[in-house]
Structures
1.
Amino acid sequence: MTNSIIKHDITSSDAQAMQQMRAMLDANPKLTFEPASRAAFDGIMGQAPAPEDVTIERGELGGVPGWWTRPTGATKGSVILYLHGGGYVIGSADAYRNFAGQIAKRAGAAAFVADYALAPERPFPAAANEVQAMHKALLAQGYERIAIAGDSAGGGLALSAAADADAKAGKIVGVVAMSPWIDMALSGRSFATRADADPLLSRDTLAEAARLYLGTTNPSDDRLPRIDKDLSKMPPVRIHVGDAEVLLDDSLRFAEQAEKQGVESAVHVWEGMTHVFPSSFAMLEAGAEALADIGSFLAGLLNKPAKKRVLVLGATGGTGRGIVKTLNERRFAPVALVRSPEKARDLDAVIVKGDASDPAAIARALDNVDAVISALGTPASPFREVTLLSTATKALTEAMRNKGVKRLVAITGIGAGESRGHGGFLFDRIIMPLLLRKVYADKDRQETIIAGSGLDYVIVRPAVLNDKPRRGTVRALLDLGGFHGGTIARSDVADFVVDQVENDAFLGKRPLVTW
């Protein structure tokens, strides 16, 4: 566990640059947090150089507009949610897209820069609610590693969001905050001790921003950034702050709380630097060094080997549940397409709501997926036509081709071998005609579709399934020896099926799975 405050001396080059910057700032009025200041602030922040080899395009996440920045070769399954500064009143994703793109490039992961709600038009809790909505959207899209980053008000918002969430369940692997505004009550000592040193902010300007953002909400509201928050579920945190800014004490007090609560954190304090100095990385050595540290910190969290994502159809059935469990045990990342999320509440998987025969739902579920396991079942009926297996499989194979997903492992029915002539007299002449003939007819159609799909498929035909592995003489007597292959436990089928996600031994084949 690392909890530390790291101090950096100013270089002679940066001392000269800061002197010039201060002269320029002193000649202009201090920053004010009001809608009229938005264009001027965006003009300043928008001067960050555009990153090379990074695609920047408009997007939307959880209903919130913004910009996606995607570096060439970005790690699959990793993402940064960037929350811009501006006292909850000014600032925009458009102005920050280049700066966030520079962070994304150094981290080797895509970043979404959010145009979250601003006051006074949309005061608290609109911004906090939108951060929650974006986090949920990233989980729904299957991201396995999520980092939240931000500066100033966005830094406080990032820290608050990570503290309020269960980081492990929410896939939040780390937080970066630059000059974060954490204490909405403005009680830090540095408002007095750094008042003359800070050329950008003051207690009065931040008090006005707090008034516009909070309205009648008390600064001690549990949903707001606060120094005394419960940090017990926080992931690792990296903060960069200047020692010449009135918000310095917010970072130092956070470091104290993090150490008390066992949170892994590091706060870098830079001599002579002012508010959000890393955004001036093109002219300040400290800014470039801080930006490199941020990128390295995020890369270490986000660039771990990606778990292979596997979509499971039929995940709420007995065999499907076993497959999801086995996928997790084997360090895969299961995704489940389900009609009823209520039935899937206990599944340890990314849940996508939808019907397996709906092409649009399948397309959504296939986002960022590496392979598919189909464990679809259908009620046995001697009276009605069965078409679910073939209808869903046709929609699935077409969607997989469109999405470029090649590997399909499909369980195509209860019972061994072909649909006819495989189960002995009892099964073929009595059980199957009474209950399963229509199911097996659709299984035949399903297998024909898969065989002609052009995918890397394995068609798995389990023997008659039961809930437990065969144990002892009693279960042996119940194995119905007349069956070709007898019976097999669902857990054993799950083991075999998950093996086929990466095993090429049975590609293009129809293995019979039995004891």
2.
Amino acid sequence: MLSDEVQWVLRNARLHAADPALRSAAGFAQGAGRAAPVHRAQVGRWENGGVEVTRALVRRYESVLELPEGQLLAAVDFFARSRHPVRPAAALPPRTDPDVDATLALLERALGDERMSGLDWDRLSDSLGRMPHVLVRTSDWERLFRRLLQELGLGLQLDYAQRAEALARLAGHPRSGAVVARLAAEVVARPDAQFYNDTLSLLQFTRDPEALSVLFDQLRAPTNASSLRACLIVLTTLVRGARLEPETRLEAIRLAVQHLRDPDQPYLVHRGAANLVRTLGPAGSHRVAAVLTAEDRRVAASIIRDGRAITSQAIREAHQRIRAVLEAGEGRAAAGEPVLGGLLQTALGETNEEDRSNALCILMLSPQASIIGTVHASAFADAMARGDHVAAHESATVLTWMGQLEDLDLFERVALSPATPPTVAMEAGYVVGNVVEPPGRRRDEREASFARRVAEVIATGAGDPHAELLRGLVYVLGMRRRRDLLTALADALPEPGPDPRAMPEIARGVLGWWLAVPEHLHPER
């Protein structure tokens, strides 16, 4: 299966244990009073392929190391998901059959108004996934997806990872495909949606025949840049495993190149379109790259040819900085691990966004997360100083997963500056929104500044770039549960107008999404 990756998850967790006494095989073998002692040689067999890795073994590591339940299991699931996208149950399921009564109780909670933890969703989705003939009404599947999509948009760290995996499992259930396709078609039709990618991503986890149809409709006539970008990300993943008819493949390439050559589309759309062309190749892809190079679209051409947007030297330098910090601290033993190197290569250098997201989620759950975040904050600042917005985008993609509290002032400045390109400012907003900041005067000032900038964008902005910027700025207020500021912004909007693409109408939908979230869906920080 994924033996090397799973063994790395266990070994990496032990080598970075919060308690130094547990970092050695001998110390860990004693169990710290939370598991039965074993011989130290047993730890070597667990971590080097001497025995089968089971769910119970991974849970032993979580217990002995006092990690949140499911943290290491979530990393295992994401490794497995990158190999097999359509999978309705856990990669390492329990050895016993699902408890029907317990599953029914969880299902009733999820369909009601009780709070659900990430672990609750993990258990419910795994149990349903191991019941292929489970009787769940179509309306209830839809309610599950709608609730979990809302919660995913609010989740961070392990809360996010467990919900993302649960959504993928539910989408992969043999009875849910039609609901997934209908939800995706519904969200991409809305120019005022807060999120597109979360819902559209469900299409890659289902074998329902309508999935490709929804994506091609969006590729032909995109609602806006955000929906088009989400479509390109998911379509790139889907076409890797789908056997397309020659005419369909040619149409996809033609439309992707059309979006690539559109100067009004932002970099993130160009990146997604280039990834799709690369995936649909190789026939003719080098010819497309040559044409794009001649048109001074060198970044898109680099993605098509090499699968990366920044130079291999820049990627190597980032690797070296991360490794140097690891070797200088407590991570010396783990710094040279091949699995870690592969994750970093995918996370830092791969432009295919689904592969990259899986790697970034695993790294987010790893002990190396803070180091990676600090290194990329420095790289982001350097890129902005020299005006290299492509490099800034690439670092910001990493930082939306692993931004650090000490770098908030930097990202606030970038997000709020009118001189920042709107899509870069949008990503900086997402970084700020994903960092948990303790209460205090500085936090209040920061949030008030974001609210003022939102009002300015609503009043003066126009077009897709400013709509994307608006989503990033409002995200900060929504994730920090500033209902007072969101309400004030919504109350200040003019009367509804006839143009759904006008900035006040986009703002009405975006602000309304956050204001409509029930209290019990907010995860406990």
3.
Amino acid sequence: MAASAGPTTQQRYETRIGRIPIRFLNPQQPENRWPAKAFVGEVLPFSATVFREGHDQLGAALLLTDPRGTTSRFPLHPGAPGTDAWHTSAQVDAPGTWIYRIQAYSDDWATWLHNAEIKIPAGIDVDVMITMGLQLLARLEKSQAVADATATLSDATLSPVDRLEGVTGDDLAAVIAANPLASLVTLSDPLELRVERARAGLGSWYEFFPRSEGAKQRKDGSWASGTFRTAAKRLPAVADMGFDVVYLPPIHPIGRTFRKGPNNTLDAGPNDPGSPWAIGSADGGHDAIHPELGTVKDFSYFLGVAKKNGIEIAIDLALQCSPDHPWVTQHPEWFTTLPDGSIAYAENPPKKYQDIYPINFDNDYEGLRQEILRIVKYWIGIGVTIFRVDNPHTKPLEFWEWLLHEVAAERPDVVFFAEAFTRPAMMQSLAAVGFQQSYTYFTWRNTKVELEEYLHEVSKVTSHTFRPNFFVNTPDILTEFLQFGGRPAYKVRAAIAATGSPSWGVYSGYELFENVARPGAEENIDNEKFEYKVRDYAAAEETGDSLAPYLRRLNEIRAQHPALHQLRNLDVHWSDDDSILVYSKYLDAAYTGTGSDDTIIVVANVDPHSVRETTVHLDTTRFGIEIGTEFTVTDLITGSTFVWGGDNYVRLDAFTEPVHILRVEYPKGN
């Protein structure tokens, strides 16, 4: 008879909470599937919920390890009483993978001091409390402050209250703050931060079509296209306005089948250049340059001129094809074939794009992704480091996660910018899997309430994952606010974009107040997507009919104020007027590089048709000034100065200067 099996030894349960609970760490992405994101120079708010049983005092610290393996310690500070929230800030200064942990501990000195300050004056357990204090002092490294405190606490000739007073000085407090008397030390699990180069989160973008720059119309109505050589002549002026990224729509050959004509018509003439997004012809596909723009050598020249002017070039990665693209015949399996044998063109009902075939990843996933990786690497090899990705939300997220990982493994400096005006879940997920930046809903947030909510969302709620780029317009988007708001609207939108987000951008023509829409569409009439557009920027500026000086000033202000290089430091304030938006950006002196705090207050009249008078209410503690203290502000647009406090009268005339951009001058001794 077989022996019966003995009782199974139960596996010991390992607790997860830790001796001192540490929960709800930030920054981290929801679900923590991918690291939270930051860029070099960014100041990050770190926080956690830390608590314990009983009434003993707690301490907490951030342990932040850089890519070189050096760990720095930053004390955490308690938040509002009763919340158990602890927080601190730290600046990241190098790209790569950073690791952070939260350390929590029983603060033995703070616990003793809290009890001693109650018991000793009341004559309760005096000798015991003094003995305990001396035992704690004996745990500290020897120093003059420790020796003096020990001598005073031991001096029986003094009263107990005077002996206690001798251990409450600043010198001893500094010693203990540097090396806390800790027990029950608990560490959180480590979390990763993906820190990318500064351009991943900071930049001023300018979009133009190279074929329009230097284009000339012949007497017979045909056109000589602009080239990379002629477009390079535009770069110094763009740099002079303070823009450091130039984005080019697709630079590839354009198909002829179903080519679109002016204003998106279906009957293109022989002189119509077609939409650059209808990629591919007998001249090549995504790894080719449109012959009218030049050669690879010409493009390299263009990149070189940009670099000399402090500009990076972003090119468009549009994963779609003209019916004439080589892929259509070489790889028909990369498209969707309909029951009648035709290939499905792109649609977003009621919109139809007969000149474009979308690709289908589900037919040959591996083949497609390897080809696209090859194309991206090809352009990187030529010198491209930024890709603006067209409609990424129409391709599988899994593909983007894979592609961006493969590129980052070899070239972590490459930036991908998502053109994804779509549902929040998709936009946030594109950012989560690796896109460094994205277009945003800012384009359609125009009222005070809309802007307040959205500025708070992108700076506080989604900033661990999602980096916004506040483009004011695009070739596809001319909002009603711009169509009907006149020049004041153009100033308002540019000022909020340039100060509200570290990354912002304009599409060429914005500085010329191009505001006439194609009937029934939210885009410019005579749209540059379908035709050449010749602009005389210099003449407009000479006659005072250009916004270029204002854009230049905005970028100068951005360059001079490090507070505007940050995303997470934006705080919304209040006004009594439904059209006066108020927010501030503050950066502590520890992070400015100047030794001084930097604060910008923006007050914007978002009604471009009015003059507004109101009272602005500021929580000055948000930028380090005590409530009730007066301070001076200087308008960086007009040069005017004002003495302000918590409540301030404001008058903003939309027809002169609709926005205050105010620099705070800190009171002496603040």
